[in-house]
Design brief:
It is found in: Cell membrane. By secondary structure, the protein is of the alpha/beta class. The chain contains 22 helices and 26 strands.
């Protein structure tokens, strides 16, 4: 599964690069895949085929000029050495994702070799420092009998002895050894007194050793592993964990490759039916025979046809939670792509030479999407960085690989190895420690601070509440000022309400100008000219006072908005009340069509003055005793400060509102009683209708005002002011404007005096 996934990761990276316009534009990367089966002989055959321009497939060999400009491989050091020695003289770049032998850093022997995995030169030293750190001065050692194991162990022994660590035994095995040979090595381990075993083994040798270790029931050893097997997921079974449980070792950092899992799940034999490797993988994944022949069919065999779905299986191929070596393949492909890109950018000819690609590869320096910077030193090696992992069981009893330390060769020697031994990882800023019941105090879980609380240091025991006017940021690591909310002129709601207010003022002025233009006509005279203009003036003030509710509340705006609202509406209702009284008195004391009796004019003026003056007294007392003031409401919303006007005295506010309501009720009663006056002189029915709208608006205003949050409270109040003002303007003056503009023939003394004609 490992090798097949490496190949699929390579294909994924190539297809991803080919789809990018910024990297190798108008050029597509192709590929050939060879299976060396871990054999040095097969590696030599593959390298010869590449250099001779031959394409080896499962079916045939065909000749032709090679287009191969670089080689990815191999996964084992011995095979990679053979491959690199064959291609080195021709300067064909070879990039390995898994060959770690320090010998490959020799530029004289391997001039065109590169790798995206650190050299064992560093891993062997890191393992020696690890053993020294834990005070394990008496250890056993076992290695693969190949270039990887022999070179790695030789460096480990040299450094370990220099650090004062003694090696009880050092055994070598090969996957091709006989069972008797493997048994003898296990017997040495079993008889040894060292309780720590350093296993510098490739996966093949680890498999055969574990088989015999389990067979002889060798337990109680502390295993120290190399990167080849320490994070091999297939080994982390409950059965094997009885032997390897608690193992520690170094591995390269894991990473994520966006889109890879989706790509892997689409793999299917139908993509390439002749691909023997794909067929073998499918049969292993589903435990079946793919496309069986009649001769191979037996009663007990399970068959499959390629319609199976990889989403239904769980194995190392589809598990992308620990992408380590696969990420090395991914980085290797991108390194080649950038090298080709840089080579072509400096060339006038499209013919690429191996030496040119190798030179660009040596100087390549780019950053992956993950943020990792990729470059090679003079030996073709990357910067050596490792994670120290420990095999631990989680709550479900499954073995997990927990990072407990780091090794960074780019740091000074005293800072390179940083082991950590903790029950719980540190809580980052924004979290606090929470004790786990029944566990020691050093074992804790990290809980995110609640909203409005922060922690600024690592491993905080408690979260700190933010000040009243502050709130926690997204990470809960610092307090920031809360958002400030009020109904402003810049937002959509403020703009809309302002537009309605100005529209109301404009319409009111237009009606006043029209009345002034037709002031000598019988209809305007009969409408009580003085009260009409005073009513239009008060309506203009009503529309304008709504603007005082928009904008950031200040001390002056808070006092102005409520008092202006109360006085202007009192003036408006006073005019309507006087107008209603005038209609009734005019009908009872004059002939229709004549002017209002002069004796009623002082009464109208006095009633308007005193009704308005009483509201002025209420507002004055309110402002003197407990005026409205700006107020920061921090209780309604947790993360927002609502700027509003505190009423100061709720009694004052409701007294102002109640007085307006009293005037409107008086107007409504009088207008309702006068609704049956003759139609040609009956303004009362329109006043009645306008007051119905007025009262309905303000009755519904009360529950809406009480229940609306934040700036919507102000918006509801503005809406009530505008709606009631428009209701009065339209209901009282629209019928008159209609006659003046569209029915001028009815605007005569004759029509007004004739009861048979309906004017309004």
């Amino acid at each position: 599964h490992w090798e097949f996934r490496f190949a699929q990761t390579m294909i994924f990276a190539i297809e991803e690069i080919n789809s990018k316009a910024s990297l190798l534009p108008n050029i597509s990367i192709g590929y050939q895949i060879f299976d060396s089966c871990g054999s040095t002989l097969a590696s030599m055959r593959s390298s010869m085929a590449l250099m001779n321009g031959q394409e080896l497939t499962a079916e045939h060999i065909c000749s032709g000029k090679t287009a191969v400009k670089a080689i990815i491989g191999e996964s084992e050091s011995s095979s990679t050495i053979v491959l690199s020695r064959a291609t080195g003289p021709f300067r064909i770049p070879v990039i390995s994702h898994f060959a770690t032998c320090a010998c490959l850093s020799n530029r004289k022997q391997f001039p065109s070799f590169f790798r995206t995995i650190p050299s064992d030169f560093y891993q062997s030293r890191a393992l020696a420092q690890l053993v020294k750190h834990f005070g394990w001065t008496w250890v056993g050692a076992v290695r693969s009998d190949n270039d990887y194991g022999n070179n790695g162990m030789a460096t480990f022994v040299e450094v370990a002895e220099r650090e004062g660590v003694c090696i009880e035994y050092s055994e070598a095995i090969s996957r091709t050894n006989s069972k008797e040979k493997i048994a003898k090595v296990v017997e040495v381990i079993k008889k040894g007194t060292a309780k720590v075993l350093v296993a510098f083994l490739a996966q093949g040798e680890m498999d055969v050793l574990l088989e015999e270790i389990i067979g002889q029931n060798v337990t109680g050893l502390q295993w120290v592993g190399s990167e080849s097997w320490i994070t091999a997921r297939y080994l982390a079974t409950k059965f094997v964990s009885k032997v390897l449980g608690g193992a520690v070792g170094f591995t390269i950092s894991k990473s994520k490759i966006p889109g890879l899992r989706e790509f892997l799940l689409k793999v299917n034999p139908s993509q390439n039916p002749s691909n023997a490797l794909l067929r073998e993988f499918w049969e292993m994944a589903f435990g079946c025979h793919l496309f069986p022949t009649i001769s191979s069919k037996t009663e007990h065999e399970k068959f499959c046809n390629g319609s199976e779905n990889l989403t239904n299986v769980s194995n190392e191929f589809t598990d992308v939670s620990e992408l380590r070596i696969s990420n090395n393949v991914y980085k290797a492909i991108y390194a080649i792509a950038y090298a080709l890109h840089n080579t072509l950018a400096c060339k006038t000819s499209n013919v690429l030479k191996w030496s040119q690609v190798m030179h660009s590869l040596q100087n390549v320096n780019f950053t992956m999407a993950s943020g990792e910077t990729i470059y090679f030193d003079q030996n073709g090696d990357p910067t050596a960085r490792y994670e120290l992992v420990n095999w631990q069981k989680n709550g479900a009893g499954e073995t997990t690989f927990i990072t407990v330390g780091h090794y960074d060769a780019s740091l000074p020697s005293e800072q390179q190895f940083k082991p950590s031994s903790v029950c719980s990882e540190s809580c980052q800023p924004g979290f606090r420690q929470a004790v786990i019941k029944g566990r020691p105090v050093c074992c804790f879980e990290c809980l995110r601070c609640p909203s409005g609380e922060i922690s600024t240091t690592t491993d905080s025991a408690e979260c700190i509440k933010c000040p009243l006017e502050h709130w926690s940021n997204e990470n809960h690591s610092m307090c920031v000022l809360k958002k400030v909310e009020f109904l402003s002129f810049e937002e959509n709601m403020g703009i809309l309400l302002t537009a309605f207010s100005l529209t109301g003022v404009s319409l009111t002025i237009a009606v006043a100008l029209m009345f002034y233009h037709f002031i000598d006509t019988p209809l305007v005279k009969a409408s009580n000219t003085e009260l009409s203009f005073l009513l239009l003036f008060s309506l203009s003030l009503c529309f304008l006072c709504s603007l005082t509710f928009i904008g950031q509340p200040t001390e002056w705006s808070c006092m102005l908005r409520h008092t202006a609202f109360g006085i202007t509406f009192a003036l408006c209702m006073s005019c309507v009340l006087a107008r209603t009284i005038a209609v009734v008195m005019a009908f009872k004391t004059t002939v229709p069509g004549t002017s209002v009796p002069q004796c009623t004019l002082p009464l109208q003026r006095i009633s308007v003055f005193f009704c308005t003056f009483f509201q002025v007294i209420i507002c004055t007392l309110w402002l003197v005793l407990a005026p409205p003031i700006p107020y920061k409401n921090i209780t309604h919303s947790l993360d927002t400060i609502i700027l509003e006007c505190d009423l100061g005295s709720a009694i004052g506010f409701w007294a102002v509102l109640g007085y307006i309501g009293l005037l409107s009720v008086l107007c409504f009663i009088l207008a309702f009683l006068a609704r049956k006056l003759p139609d040609n002189f009956n303004e009362a029915k329109f006043i009645t209708f306008s007051l119905l709208i007025f009262c309905a608006v303000w009755i519904t205003f009360i529950p809406a005002y009480v229940s609306s949050p934040g700036k919507f409270t102000v918006a509801v109040e503005i809406f009530a002011i505008l709606a009631s003002s428009f209701g009065l303007l339209f209901c009282i003056f629209t019928p008159k404007c209609y006659i003046i503009l569209l029915k001028p023939e009815q605007n005569t003394r004759k029509h007004i005096m004739d009861p048979s004609h309906s004017i309004m």
